[in-house]
Write a structure and sequence with these properties.
- The complex is a heterodimer of chains A (about 375) and B (about 130).
- Chain A contains twelve helices and eleven strands.
- Chain A folds into two domains: about 130 residues, 3-Layer(aba) Sandwich (Peroxisomal Thiolase, Chain A, domain 1); about 230 residues, 3-Layer(aba) Sandwich (Peroxisomal Thiolase, Chain A, domain 1).
- Chain A has about 375 residues and is α/β, with parallel strands linked by helices.
- A five-stranded antiparallel sheet of chain B has the order 6-5-4-7-8, with no helix packed on it.
- With about 130 residues, chain B is mainly beta.
- Chain B is globular and about 45 Å long.
- Chain B has one helix and eight strands, in the order H-E-E-E-E-E-E-E-E.
- The mean pLDDT of chain B is about 95.
- Chains A and B meet through helix 4 and strand 5 of A and strand 2, strand 4, strand 5 and strand 6 of B.
Amino acid sequence: MTIRNKAYIAGAWEHPLRVIPDLSTPELHATCAAGALADAGLSHSDVDGYFCAGDAPGNGATNMVDYLGLKVKHLDSTETGGSSYIIHVAHAAAAIAAGKCSVALITLAGRPKSERFNAFRGGGPDEQFEWWTGYSTSNAYGMCAARHMHEYGTTSEQLAWIKVAASHHAQHNPNAMLRDVVTVEDVVNSPMIADPLHRLDCCVVSDGGGALVVVSPEIARSLSRPLVAVRGAGEAVQGHGGGRGLDLTVTATSQSAPRAFAEAGVTPADVKYASIYDSFTITVLLQLEDMGFCAKGEGGRFVADGNLIAGTGRLPFNTDGGGLCNNHPTNRGGITKVIEAVRQLRGEANAPVQVPDCDLAAVNGIGGILGLRHAAATLVLERQ
Amino acid sequence: MAAVPSRPLPAPQPSVETQPFWDAAAEGRLTIKRCGSCNEPHYPPRGRCPFCFSDATTWENSKGEGAIYSLSTMRRGPNTPYVLAYVTLDEGPAVMTNIIDCDPDTLAIGDRVEVAFTPTEGGPPVPFFKPVAR
């Protein structure tokens, strides 16, 4: 059994604002849901499956299904942090392929700018051995970057190129938080946050949200939107493995991406556009290697000299400006990665960054914290 | 020199599975778990071996010495700088910790370090590490 071509992303909608003081978080979920359903040409009453993660208030999907007034026969509250929504697309495709539902709604929303935000302390079994270390995302990802530099000679200037490419894309996105084009020098001269990561190696903090609608092939063909098929998907979890074999230079993407490409029957060389979760510059570099766009250790050279910039580079990435420049709604960037890939496949990206004849895209996300434990999710999407 | 954490350290919350680790910490001993079935050591300690899933795990004292696997000095925010690191113990497992009593600017991957238990607010001390005196 495969999910290949068993489900299509018919609706994708991203909230245009980055500070949203006037909507409650559940209300913001509802706004995004309405946006994605309108984009698909479907209505509230068509939804028979609902997917959400830890940003949704309440008890898994239960509260939101009630709040949104949905009548669903399939629920999924898979929570893997920022990569949750990429996994939701895969799980929605599997549920649709199994006949469990035919119109699956996925929502994300949150307002860390506008309401007091409680940093996630998961309370996992190893928390008592970790939280007194003062770990955060920045220094945990900093350790990954430091180790990659140690093993492969990767430089801060190479990492900076990832931010530079994102800024080149963000200048064309009127909704992006940071629209100024920056240089490698700007990045490496910005204040050090957690060695070796500078302020401009870090993503933005924003309010926001988004939603997706995944539907059966029959319903997709009945709608007027371009056909964006889910061709393959993979997911995997990686931690520090009981302290043995710790390797901060490799992510769970090294497992999830081959699964997704195998299911899709394509290779990284076939990919025209990639959405890569960019919580930090190092996050992108590690995923590019683990997805197979270059060999392990070659990421620094791969991203340098504008190779990720649409129009000039070999692999256009995050053409909305990504988390580094556009937005990172409620500190979870997975759904916006899928949304920009859908835009590219539909030919609806901002004109200067639209990839010509973009018929195959890859989406990759990391949820949780690299360096502690995280879940990677990969999608291969195709315009048909 | 600096980087002795001036920040208050929250007390670890032991469980029935981990109480012996924290009891040993209070005595200044760093412990790890070793599996009686596959003989692999692991950390953080679990009742059941994460490698072979046997429940025949036993506590074992670590020498408390190892080398820095990676590190990142936190420069922004309250009570900075402090050095987050993974230390690979000579017994094998890696431990997430802080490096204290050090100069963050000269500290490097591969440096030898030893355990330096550090008091917490009303709980058992936590295993930080410091450079081995040369």
